[in-house]
Amino acid sequence: MSILALSAANVRSMWRRFVGLTALLTVTVGVCVTALAVSASADRAAHDRVQEGAANRTVTVERAFDRPGAQPLTDAALRTLKGLPHVTAVEPRAQVSFGYKDATVMGVLLYATTVRSSVTPPIVGQTRPDLFPLRTGEVVLPATSQGSDLSTLLGRKITVDITRLVSSGQGTGAQDGVTVVGLFDPGWQVDGADAAYADNDTVVEWSAARAGVTAAQFTANVGYDKVSVIVDEARNVDATLQLVQSAGFVGSTLQQELSALPGVLAMIRTTGTLLLAVLGLVALVGAIVVTGALTRQRIREIGILKAVGFRSAAVLAMFVGEMAVVGVLGAAAGALVGAAGAAAAVTVLRGLPEAAAYVPDALPLPDTTTFGGLLLLTVLITVAGALLPALRAARLAPSDAIKEW
Amino acid sequence: MNTNTDSPLQVRDVHKSFALHGERIDVLRGADLSLAAGKVTALVGRSGSGKTTLLQIAGLLAGADRGSVRISGRDVHELSDNRRADLRRRSLGFVFQAFNLLPQHTAAKNVALPHLGGGRDAARRAHELLGRVGLGARAGHRPGELSAGEQQRVAVARALVNDPVVVLADEPTGNLDADSEAAVLALFREIARDGRGVLLVTHSEAVCRSADVVIRMSDGVTVPDVLLDSGAGVQR
């Protein structure tokens, strides 16, 4: 029989004495596994939804008027960009000014902007459920702009003022009719403070008029203001950016759409970390208290073992081994409890609107490294807790331990 | 006094004192002890005479303030705790009045305990010894499932598992009825016939009668050996 076998046999024989500590460890590990599982799942969900979101997989290519050799963003350029490795889509972007004024609106100057399907504005009013993609002759305006309330225009066909180039440096006013199909939150200024959104054909037509060319000539020769190049995975964005720049375009990447997890999930992660620390401390104290108590109850046993020739190190190893066995049992039971806790937590979180989107369908569990690390930590804490009282026990002189011969 | 240099256990001029409530108590004041191989020696004396302390020192369970202890001729004074533990395991066997078996383990595991790491050899030896003390069929029983006499026989088997040169026992029959006492004493005589030195600390007249040598202790000193006819109870 080895020391470890002796420890295991002791735990098996005296399991009632170890029930309290095992239960403590089970609860501790269970709570930690639950918190870590939900947190890890939220991380994965956030990664999928934010890190791998289209906005974060975008390289923005701009028309550089003042850069020698920079290519215009024409139809040919779009084909070049679309053909680059890892590129899944290209979204041309143009912006052109237009004005509107009536009896209720004092006069606003807005910029008709092409809509990026990857970054749509937050809608606060709409005439139909699915606004995007916009149809020809449709616009979405900010609910308010330049001190005017534009919400009254929702659902109406309005006439706007645009500019048409008639000769070099000379333009003239023109009018066009569009329908206001939606309103967006004016706080959304990703495309500029006075942006409005219109369908691609309308923006291109107005831009062509402003340049004094036809729409076909505009896309073939003049080109768009910007192009959003959508990459397949976030990790390929940098490589694609280099390819875009090597091809003679001016490109940059968008900042992450979001840099942090939603508050509730961040709270769960923080809580999980705190619980891990607090419960780890509780487990340590529990291990010390229980091992100390067990040691006091077993002083005679220590004396017997030393009398029959056990070295102090062997007695120490036996006590530590017992705690290691208890630690493994507690950690294993805690893992099961934690899995059940995670399932329950997920059920609760699905009921919270701000968190529901980040809650996975499958049972969340921490990754293997986290899981293994937690189990190892539990065993180490338990063993560490046992070390001091076991050391004290091992140092007892046999004659002190066996008082009654 | 037996001064045989081949003695498996020799204790010479051992002193030991304790402090109790600020007062010094001299428990041993120059005690001598020498066991003869192949003989049962009884150590007798009143309570408080120092028998148990002498036994603890002789068994390397406690240290002496002064004096020497030799086991198989080797002075143990300078030995480290680990060396003393090794010597206890290899050369000494203990039998306690209260049996001191580990209640969580079976009789076989209790017997094999000093043979930790011995694997199958230890298990085989434990079963062999249990058979020798008449408990071969009870190897899988725990101490709580055995009678007092049976528990003491398990303790005797444990004392023999590492084939020691000396077996030390303190009141080994103190908790036994007359039949069990006779059986255990017979075992000790059998152990002595193997060539071991056996020391029994006792108050029992029956134990004294079964001993080859009787040593009396009084006020921390041993009086010269009194040799008895084995089992006859007559002073030689």
Automatic annotation (TrEMBL), chain A:
For this UniProt entry, what is the primary localization, expressed as one broad class?
membrane
Bilayer-crossing regions: 274-295, 316-349, 369-391
Which residue range or ranges hold the ABC3 transporter permease C-terminal domain?
Answer: 275-397
Which keywords does this chain's UniProt record carry?
Cell membrane, Membrane, Transmembrane, Transmembrane helix
Per UniProt, subcellular location reads as: Cell membrane
Task: State whether keyword Transmembrane helix applies.
Answer: yes
What would you give as a GO molecular function for this chain, any one?
transmembrane transporter activity
Q: Which family does it belong to?
A: Belongs to the ABC-4 integral membrane protein family.
| PANTHER family per the UniProt record, alphabetical | ABC TRANSPORTER PERMEASE YTRF (PTHR30572:SF4), MEMBRANE COMPONENT OF TRANSPORTER-RELATED (PTHR30572)
For this entry, the protein name equals Putative ABC transport system permease protein
UniProtKB/TrEMBL annotation, chain B:
Matching SUPFAM superfamilies: P-loop containing nucleoside triphosphate hydrolases
Under PROSITE patterns, the record lists:
ABC_TRANSPORTER_1, ABC_TRANSPORTER_2
Instruction: Give every ABC transporter domain span.
Output: 9-236
Q: Which UniProt keywords apply?
A: ATP-binding, Lipoprotein, Nucleotide-binding, Transport
GO CC annotation:
plasma membrane
**What InterPro entries does the record tag this protein with?**
AAA+_ATPase, ABC_transporter-like_ATP-bd, ABC_transporter-like_CS, ABC_transpr_LolD-like, MacB-like_ATP-bd, P-loop_NTPase
- Extract the CDD domains matched here: ABC_MJ0796_LolCDE_FtsE
Q: GO MF annotations for this entry? A: ATP binding; ATP hydrolysis activity; transmembrane transporter activity
Claim: ATP-binding is one of the keywords in the record: yes
Q: Which SMART domains match?
A: AAA
Q: Does the keyword Transmembrane helix apply?
A: no
Q: Which PANTHER family match?
A: IMPORT ATP-BINDING PROTEIN
Q: What name is this protein filed under?
A: Putative ABC transport system ATP-binding protein/lipoprotein-releasing system ATP-binding protein
Give the species this sequence originates from.
Answer: Actinoplanes philippinensis
